[in-house]
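Internal tracking record. Fields below are filled automatically when a chain is submitted to the structure queue. Please do not edit lines marked as system-generated. If the sequence contains nonstandard residues, flag them in the REMARKS field before resubmitting.
Queue: standard
Priority: normal
Entity type: single polypeptide chain
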Amino acid sequence: MNIQLMSRSRLDVVRYDRCVAESVLPMPYAFSAHLDVVASRWKVVVLGDYDLVMPIAYNRKLLGVPQIYHPFFAQQLGAFGRYQRDVVWVKAMLNALSKFYVRIQMQLNAANPVPTIPGWTFRQRTNFELDLHQAYSEIRKNYRKGHKANIKSAQTKHLRIERGTIGAKDFARLGVGQKGVVSLARLPELVELYGKDSIWVARLVSGEIGAFGFFPTLSRFVKGQERVVYMIGHTTALGRKVFSGHFLLDAVIHEYAGQGGIFDFEGSELPGVASFFRGFGPVDVPYVLAERGNGIAV
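SYSTEM-GENERATED OUTPUT FOLLOWS
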């Protein structure tokens, strides 16, 4: 089968999205509507008749020469399709990119095998996932003892959960204004894509926000499959005192428990954040950061 590097303008979007939807492990990040928001310029490596696709984001910050970078808010890209787990084809697609780009930095998805390619480095990264097939009562049994105590404490503080009460632009301003949250000029477009209901807030009894999160879902694109992604989140200083972050994530897990699918924590490589996520009883399903060259200017 032949391999092509296809521009966004030449792409058959319907067939591309179908390939992603029918892949072994579909991810919301790889759908064209999501990429149109988070990547100013993107192309696709296409194997055969849309049998396998690999979206890439690129810019020209290397002395005007195109280079591949990994965009924000798209944790796992890489290859999608019927051969998603085939190391031969994944390697062939990466080799094809080497002919066009000197510097490459991209994160593959958890289903992609790790090939051996001269000049490339592959580094495993942490990603915690929680199986949502079980009932909430069963999932909660695997919470860390401290997490259970903190959630119980939060419940006594009369926190309340709101969903969809903040608009896209207001949420973007809130997110950009918080320390540690990466800003994105088109964040409102991303929220609009997944809908206001993807915004969850834990509000304190005083009316102030204790914690907030953006939880886009795979079902926006693929019916019958679910992957709830904790894409953006923050707990305020006041919220930390009453365990608002614990309370918020527990509420989201409770909402989707027993419906099947995955709750995706999106990481983390940060020890403190990783410990917090582990307290909810997930498993580590790693993915790989693939690099060629010596640094990327995003």
